Input
Amino acid sequence: MKTRTVPTQFGDLILVEEDGHITALRWGRAPVEQDSDVLGEAHRQLAAYDAGRLDTFDLPLKVKGTDFQRAVCAAMSAIRFGDTCTYGDIANQLGVPAQAVGQACGGNPIPVIIPCHRVMGARGLTGFSGAGGVTTKVALLRHEGAGSFLI
Output
């Protein structure tokens, strides 16, 4: 496992690579700064996203978890930059209860890159598992121009 820190306006982000795939993104500083082609490209893309120059990530990702977790992560990855959807929308797509989708969103191992911040509750804004919670979620949505629902 290799780690690298990416400073962003949303806080310092730790990228985790295993076997040529990004497997996690967390808030904080990496205990050891390492380099690889995958980490270098992920760093470049996150920095471009942070600067407003990238709206779609193209990285090798590996979501650890159940088939259901991977299905929810795939559905979240399909939400376009600047758009949002609800847990219910994803639940209908997958034929499962919305609460299960909410739990899977909360367990997203690669937030920001897999955009769980773009998923809302039936009545609007809900929690966020990243550092800063809802404040960070709102910052990410505003960064993407999807914050108009907050006004």
Strands lie at 2-8, 11-18, 21-27, 85-86, 119-120. The first helix runs from residue 37 to 50. The CA atoms of residues 7 and 111 lie 15 Å apart. The radius of gyration is 15 Å.
